């Protein structure tokens, strides 16, 4: 659910020398355990999955999971393929996924770290989790989406989480692991949590859970629809995000948000991301979601939604859902993943 940035310079710059020293000591205590524990010995790496030219090493810390090793690998493959489908490649050359058994049922939270080699994901899985639970999981895909975006200053954490929230279900639909009806039902149901409430001071200054996660996702939705509108459905937010990644903007890098957004706007050849950020960064900006759903042709229908193909932006909805203006109503072609088996000498993190 969260990621760890590589640079804390912007935070330290605001502190005096003594306060900075105390902050660094506290940070060292916070990071010591996860960063020391992330190195993998050869006898710890249970399997390696290759997606394109990228390697995903999987480590099970301990035992006692109800799901089999093969089922665990299938779960990692689904998330990896989903992210690679959306971005047209896996975001980093190498990532180590550490699966940590915990009490209870379900996937119970994760953290993503960046380093010079790629990334590390630590994710907790309940011992009573079933394969059906893993097939419904969104958290691992969410964490892997974090790999595809550069670290930005702390006040912009909303865009890191917002992109992961917004892209995750679309990626799973495009890879064939989620239905479009389920995806849009959940988006329509949950994204109002990102709207500003009384006292809101904009995305950069209102760090509540709703504004950080769903406010960021709301920014992405509005941007995606507007890019499709201005390009007559030739481009979308996915094109901007892929361009940022292709320019080297993954989790291993620290970028200014202005650079990120300008890179995305250049890729789509329309000015959407920068102006929208200026509207939402330091003041409340309420989005007319009812109008967006009507234009996209999405109507609530009990525990699902109904698609209205005569709606003005129905083609944009299809493009967002399945990827590209010429997308068919079928899952996109997934990048092939290969299980390489036990790895003798995994890269150290």
Taken from the alpha-carbon principal axes, the silhouette is globular
Low-confidence stretches: 5-15, 26-38, 326-332, 343-349
- What is the SS-derived class? alpha/beta
Q: Gap between N and C termini, in Å?
A: 20 Å
Q: What integer value in Å does the Rg equal?
A: 20 Å
Strand and helix order: EHHEEHEEEHHHHHHHHHEEHE
Beta fraction: 15-25%
Labels describing this entry:
349 residues; Neutral Protease, domain 2; 9 strands; two-stranded antiparallel sheet; globular; 13 helices; 7-stranded mixed β-sheet
Give a verbal description of the structure.
The protein is an alpha/beta fold and 349 residues long. It has two domains: 45-151 and 337-341, Neutral Protease, domain 2 (Orthogonal Bundle); 154-322, no CATH class. Helix content is 44%, strand content 16%. The chain contains 13 helices and nine strands. The chain has helices at residues 9-12, 17-36, 69-87, 131-136, 139-146, 157-174, 180-190, 209-230, 237-246, 257-268, 273-280, 289-296, 314-322; strands at residues 2-4, 45-51, 54-60, 94-102, 107-115, 118-126, 298-301, 304-307, 337-341. The strands form two sheets. Strands 1-5-6-4-3-2-9 form a seven-stranded mixed β-sheet. A hairpin with a 2-residue loop joins strand 2 and strand 3 (54-60). The longest helix is centred in the middle third of the chain and has 22 residues, at 209-230. It is globular, with a radius of gyration of 20 Å. The two termini are 20 Å apart. 43% of the residues are buried. Mean pLDDT is 86; it is low at 5-15, 26-38, 326-332 and 343-349.
């Amino acid at each position: 659910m969260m990621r760890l940035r590589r640079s804390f310079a912007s935070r330290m710059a605001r502190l005096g020398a003594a306060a900075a020293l105390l902050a660094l000591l506290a940070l060292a205590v916070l990071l010591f355990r996860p960063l020391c524990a992330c190195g993998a010995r050869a006898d710890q790496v249970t399997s390696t999955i290759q997606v394109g030219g990228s390697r995903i090493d999987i480590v099970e810390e301990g035992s006692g999971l109800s799901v089999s090793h093969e089922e665990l690998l299938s779960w990692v493959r689904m998330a990896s393929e989903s992210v690679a489908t959306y971005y047209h490649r896996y975001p980093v050359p190498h990532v180590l996924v550490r699966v940590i058994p915990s009490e209870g049922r379900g996937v119970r939270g994760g953290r993503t770290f960046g380093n010079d080699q790629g990334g590390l994901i630590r994710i907790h899985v309940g011992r009573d989790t079933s394969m059906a639970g893993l097939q419904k999981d969104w958290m691992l895909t969410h964490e892997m989406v974090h790999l595809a975006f550069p670290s930005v200053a702390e006040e912009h954490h909303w865009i890191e989480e917002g992109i992961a929230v917004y892209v995750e279900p679309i990626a799973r639909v495009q890879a064939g692991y989620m239905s479009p009806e389920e995806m849009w039902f959940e988006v329509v149901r949950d994204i109002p949590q990102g709207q500003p409430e009384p006292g809101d001071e904009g995305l950069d200054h209102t760090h509540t859970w709703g504004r950080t996660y769903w406010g960021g996702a709301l920014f992405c939705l509005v941007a995606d629809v507007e890019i499709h509108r201005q390009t007559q459905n030739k481009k979308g937010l996915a094109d901007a995000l892929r361009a940022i990644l292709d320019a080297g903007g993954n989790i291993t890098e620290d970028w200014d948000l202005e650079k990120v957004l300008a890179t995305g706007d250049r890729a789509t050849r329309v000015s959407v991301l920068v102006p929208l950020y200026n509207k939402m960064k330091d003041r409340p900006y309420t989005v007319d979601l009812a109008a967006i759903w009507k234009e996209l042709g999405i109507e609530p229908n009990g525990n699902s939604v109904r698609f209205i193909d005569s709606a003005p932006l129905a083609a944009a909805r299809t493009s967002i859902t399945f990827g590209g203006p010429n997308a068919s109503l079928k899952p996109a072609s997934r990048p092939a993943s290969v299980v390489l088996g036990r790895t003798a000498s995994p890269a150290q993190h």
